[in-house]
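The records we work with from here on pair a chain with its fold. Each token is a code from a learned vocabulary of local backbone shapes. A record is reproduced here so that you can trace the correspondence yourselves:

_____
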Amino acid sequence: MNNQTTFTPERRIAMLIDGDNAQHSLLKQMFEEASRYGDVTIRRAYGDWTEPNLANWRPVMLAHAIQPIQQWRYTTGKNATDSALIIDAMDILYSGTVQGFCIVSSDSDYTRLCTRIRESGLFVMGIGRNKTPEAFINACNIFVYLENLIQSAEIKAPATVKKTATITKSSDAKTPAEPKTIAKTPPMAKSEPSQKDLLNLLQRAFDIAIQDDEGWVHLGPLGSALQRIEPSFDSRTYGFRSLSLLVKSLSKQVEVKGAKKTGASTIYVRMKDLS
């Protein structure tokens, strides 16, 4: 049985981007993330491309072969982009040409769309800010925070960094510069989950994952169980680039055996009895 949270060659994905609610500068990272779960065959971005605030989208859409879908703003204060994206998504769903969707937005208006797609047995991935409403996150199989796709130093607006660098360069040579302070920006806009929350999530995942007679669970199925329980689970949220590094950091609560070699992982984990 294929694991729906990993890449499968036969899974074709439609990536639909809400241009009014996404960040064009992260498009490359978003495509790389979506490509982990399948082949992105349909690439569309929705918005009123006559608006000056969307002008920066043009070069990145050309570079990534994205089809821009023009949607006029018929009424002030109303967002017609949502409706256009949802209509297209349903047309694609009924066409049967894809096995999954990637919706790029932080807007809760897409919650029902995601649940409807999942009801049809298709994979749904979401990409958005960590402020995305929980209902939208939980409607997806996988939800990835944009903050986890970029280096912490890149979260600050480029103009702010450049301005600071210019002041440092033009200052008196006798005054010591402190460039390191520019890069120390928290990767998340809100506080990270506590270790207690993480351990609770791990325990719940262990409870539903397949264990052997001694309570060991293979790392792959454990990761799948974590994302079934919490679609937004991502080891990068906790400061680790992989799940194996995350569980190894919890040596007081989690046992780890095996190693990750070229090809399939042989890592197994189990919760320690702390009673």
